[in-house]
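In response to the reviewer comment on reproducibility (Comment 2.3), we provide here a single inverse folding case reported in full, input and output, so that an independent group could reproduce the run without further information from us. The structure tokens appear first.
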């Protein structure tokens, strides 16, 4: 736990600032978060992240910034309140759900544009236990703004998503928090992206649907029925099964793949918040 304590303190002090804080050398920390600033892609129909200086050292003796943004950009945790009126808010999430044993599952070798991931794919790679924190490495963080191969359209419009079987499986496993290195846990065909984004204008939804028809054929309506709109949000949030989106950072480190470890998801204590920016961390014994 000393490693986690060091992490919290180093966040407050800033990267590269030396301080007489003991670090547990038996624990190595890995950042599973994406950088966030005004350049980051934002969710369709949502406002972008905006930042500006409102005080500068030369004039005011201090530097201070002001931000305006939605909660759903960068690495963030969706609380049930996002889709459930009266649902649990960020500040009400038990700390025990945010830190503990879990797994990072590498699915990147099996997922391509608009693919679906299934419980079977996960369980073929690693043991998932009841109550685990679950992180899925799809490989899609590569296409984020600060990824290795930034591609805004591929990241937003063609990311992989959850197969319908994920819903009962996550509930059976009693998982409260899971996450992906993609813009959403839901497949584009279960989102505005494949249903009405750009309808009658730029036609993004029509292009996505055409790609999915070619990929899935007759199974398209079976995999993505009308009633499964925002599937993982609508079906899981009422059961306090929530998720982190836009994970990244060190998520592809070879030593993290398909193994059990300790995970932490650290949102700010946003009273009444339906979602919050968070820092996601893997803790590995050295």
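Designed residues, in position order:
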């Amino acid at each position: 736990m000393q490693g986690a304590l060091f992490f919290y303190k180093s966040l407050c002090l800033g990267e590269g600032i030396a301080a007489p804080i003991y670090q547990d050398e038996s624990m190595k920390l890995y950042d599973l978060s994406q950088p966030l600033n005004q350049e980051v892609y934002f969710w369709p129909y949502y406002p972008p992240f905006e930042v500006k200086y409102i005080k500068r050292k030369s004039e005011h003796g201090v530097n201070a910034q002001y931000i305006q943004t939605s909660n759903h950009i960068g690495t963030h945790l969706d609380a049930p309140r996002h889709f459930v009126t009266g649902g649990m808010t960020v500040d009400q999430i038990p700390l025990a759900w945010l830190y503990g044993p879990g797994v990072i599952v590498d699915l990147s070798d099996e997922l391509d544009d608009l693919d679906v991931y299934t419980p079977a794919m996960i369980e073929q790679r690693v043991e998932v236990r009841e109550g685990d924190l679950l992180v899925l490495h799809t490989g899609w963080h590569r296409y984020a703004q600060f990824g290795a191969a930034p591609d805004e359209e591929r990241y937003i419009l063609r990311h992989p998503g959850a197969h319908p079987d994920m819903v009962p499986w996550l509930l059976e496993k009693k998982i409260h928090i899971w996450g992906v290195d993609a813009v959403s846990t839901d497949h584009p065909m279960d989102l505005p992206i494949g249903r009405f984004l750009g309808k009658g204008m730029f036609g993004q939804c029509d292009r996505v649907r055409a790609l999915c028809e070619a990929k899935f054929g007759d199974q398209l309506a079976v995999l993505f029925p009308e009633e499964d709109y925002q599937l993982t949000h609508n079906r899981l949030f009422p059961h306090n099964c929530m998720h982190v989106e836009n994970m990244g950072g060190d998520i592809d480190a070879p030593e993290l793949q398909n193994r059990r470890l300790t995970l932490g998801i650290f949102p700010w204590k946003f009273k009444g918040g339906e979602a919050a920016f968070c820092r996601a961390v893997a803790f590995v014994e050295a």
